[in-house]
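Input for the complex:
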Amino acid sequence: MIEINNVTKIYGKKKNLFTALDDVSFQIPEGASVAIIGKSGSGKSTLMHTISGLDHPTKGEIIVDGKNTLRLKPKQMDQFRSTEMSFIFQSFFVQGSETCFNNVSLPLEIAGVPFKNRRHKVEVALEAVELLDKKRSRAKDLSGGQKQRLAIARAIVNQPKILFADEPTGNLDSATGEVVENLLFSYNKKNGTTLIIVTHDADLAAKCDMQVRMKDGRIERIAGGAK
Ligand code: ADP
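Predicted:
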């Protein structure tokens, strides 16, 4: 369960203050899929960054599995994030000159998983996105859809509890986007991983258990919510 309690985020200083999030509260049940929707500038990314601890709210609290993440020291938060959370972005962010295997292995290296334990985990993740046959290929030689599948493999290799996806299909054509969506939802259902998607895509949002619509930094409407 993720609890977002009275979260306000104000950017800027003195005369130049801008309230990007204004007293936002809601809860995300464990294992739910949630779409954060709304116009550009409505606060979607800021909300995602505060939930994941990448950004610190000005007021309010974020409780993840009973842990008040804002009370964690920066190092503890980094550790918490690297073991519990993963991210997928619109623009893939894979290392082009590295092999698919090395791209997926990277989070395990960062988490200090010994080499002998990495291979199996990397292969399981590549298999899950149907890229095992490409493990020795360089990421730059993949198509857009394959790059995003590789980004998903890299995001799931450490079995996160929460998967954040920022416009994950924004750079893909609709058929390829659907393959990526299906992978995300099947992973969410199979593993009970909470999936939080920032999107403009109404069809993608409708497939989520819960939709949180943002407007001018406030929640305009929440739909769904019960699993
Ligand atoms: P969305 O993801 O819905 O497009 P954002 O959360 O990125 O919206 O931004 C919400 C508002 O906060 C926007 O008006 C944006 O200009 C402002 N904003 C975001 N980040 C910063 C920042 N670092 N400094 C100042 N204003 C910011």
